[in-house]
Amino acid sequence: MAWALRLRLLLLLAVAAAATGGRVDLWPMPASVTRGAQTLLLNRDLKLSTAGSSYADGKGILKEAFQRMVAVVELDHAINGTYSSQGAPVLAGVRVAVRSPSDVLNFGVDESYKLSVPATGNPLYAQIEAQTVYGALHALETFSQLCNFDFNANLIELHSAPWTILDAPRFPYRGLLIDTSRHYLPVPVIKSVIDSMTFSKLNVLHWHIVDEQSFPLQIPSYPKLWNGAYSYSERYTFDDAIDIVQYAEKRGVNVLAEIDVPGHALSWGVGYPSLWPSTTCKEPLDVSNDFTFQVINGILSDFSKVFKFKFVHLGGDEVNTSCWSTTPHIKSWLLQHGMNESDAYRYFVLRAQKIAISHGYDIINWEETFNNFGDKLDRKTVVHNWLGSGVAEKVVAAGLRCIVSNQDKWYLDHLDATWEGFYTNEPLTNIYNPEQQKLVLGGETFSRPFGHVLQQLQIHSYKIAKLSRLAVTMYCDTDILFLGYIVAHRSSWVHKGHNICAKAVDVLFAYPEHKQ
């Protein structure tokens, strides 16, 4: 949380530095912004009012978000309580009116809001109007970016009032993937990642929980599965998963759980060796063994008790099926069922899809499933593009939904990916039919922890700028000179003592060979 908070402060400092120059620099840029020229001061004891709101805030989502916002705005500084000598109007608080009483975080939930900051009034209150509490959370984030700590007067200022901001995201799916199989992340680090996402209004944490390297999650139905963890301590209990999901939900972030089948599953057999084709050829999972699908059913049954998001990710990528044709009992099964390796791959994916649907999920699969047998996929399938460009247009033309994550543009661990490419990666390229455009749910960036490349603190400092660029593309349809903006404010970060992020800017932007 501490490092995510510091990264958040970097964004606020950058916005504050630009405020005096007459620019509107908000992450992501709202759909509509008007402003004036009045400077306000914020009351040292800023109030939250929910009078007239239909939302009772029984879970404390709004109250806690307001407290987090105030803590960030104040920058842990002592605030001067004397305003009379300043001569500027004082903002007493924020009134929030949420129309919906529900805080169920469904996919496609209304995230729109209106933020008004008047220049006059007694008492003077900012006003937030939103259909749901999750729109109100975005409004609080935007409000925080309007505020600037004055180090000379020890006061919080809000420039350019009155403000009227109308906003709604461009895409309903704005995601970040973390991989806890290849590199274990402690729960506090995952929570810090979630906090960082909210600063850019990203709303889906894609949790790639397991892979061939390790199986760190407790599965009550099959308790030996987490024998495949790296170590006894590098595990997540079932309650840890519940805690992460609840933490994310209170910040407007859904958690998408992924188990990758039939490939990337070597770790499953540590606890249950019969899931392997053989002890010498350990993946993909044994397609001929009904126990394989019983385990998948058990995992998804347990998932349904924790991961309430509409979707579950079943992977399906990079499947090397050679073990199936070289393992005698599977080879015999293939002959008996009149299948070759490709047929068995399709059979496995489709059977796993049916299991997921039986637990109430829509399915997301990596694009290889579409590339190999797209016409056979269940219509509830969302195709996750990651290999390259040009896939989304084919997917939506086939009537299926798509998420864009092409690795040459949006993978954070691809250090050769240029900023120009990251910035110009448009999910709707060559998709002109409005109905087909609706099938592109959004996009996602892949933040595999760089264990062998960077330490955790460096991960965050590297990630923040690129995450913010993705957020602009996913959230709004505005041409913002983001690259130049970050570079321009490097000096202000150094001045404020935030050398970690300044060094990250040096790496990302200054070296011509990276063109970052």
UniProtKB/TrEMBL annotation:
| Annotated Gene3D superfamilies | Chitobiase/beta-hexosaminidase domain 2-like, Glycosidases
Extract the InterPro entries matched here: Beta_hexosaminidase_sua/sub, GH, Glyco_hydro_20_cat, Hex-like_dom2, HEX_eukaryotic_N
Signal peptide positions are 1-21
Record domain Beta-hexosaminidase eukaryotic type N-terminal: where: 26-146
Pfam families in alphabetical order: Glyco_hydro_20 (PF00728), Glycohydro_20b2 (PF14845)
Q: What Enzyme Commission number does this protein have?
A: 3.2.1.52
Q: In what residue span(s) does the Glycoside hydrolase family 20 catalytic domain sit?
A: 171-426
> Which residues constitute the catalytic centre?
E318
Catalyses: Hydrolysis of terminal non-reducing N-acetyl-D-hexosamine residues in N-acetyl-beta-D-hexosaminides
Keyword Glycoprotein found: yes
An example GO BP is:
glycosaminoglycan metabolic process
Q: Which GO terms describe its molecular function?
A: beta-N-acetylhexosaminidase activity
Alphabetical UniProt keywords:
Glycoprotein, Glycosidase, Hydrolase, Signal
One GO cellular-component annotation of the UniProt record comes to:
membrane
Regarding protein family, the annotation reads:
Belongs to the glycosyl hydrolase 20 family.
Q: What is this protein called?
A: Beta-hexosaminidase
Phylogenetic classification of the source organism: Eukaryota, Viridiplantae, Streptophyta, Embryophyta, Tracheophyta
